[in-house]
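S1.2 Input.
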Amino acid sequence: QPDVITHVALVRPKPNVFVDDIKYLLVICTPVSVILLGLSLQPVTGPDHRQRTEIKLYATDMSVSTDNVEMASVVGTSDGRIFMCGSNDYNMYELHYQEKEVWFGKRFHLINHSATGLPSYIPLLRTSQSEGEPIASRMSYWMLT
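S1.3 Output.
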């Protein structure tokens, strides 16, 4: 990993997107990207005949640029959705992923749930929401309701 890792979270994956062995996703955030790795836990018997758990990481080839928005406060839901907030723009994002690419949708991309209108589609028009309550507290409230 060439970039500094600024945040890491372990979340549950959406059903039927990855192989059955993958029970968790490791979300790795850097100042410029978000990367997903699959994680499996397999019970194995050690040389001393004691049970232990073996951890395996799977490359998912899922990585997305964040347009220099540093992500923080990564939260996963029980149905596999992944939310995070931009620590320097105070917006709430969803990391959308699916099994296959479809005609008008990418397999892996960020959705900005805070921006509305034209700025949400054209990155150059985005402005910082420097006033008001930080998105992390709003996101926690939203996730609990």
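S1.4 Remarks. The mean pLDDT is 80.
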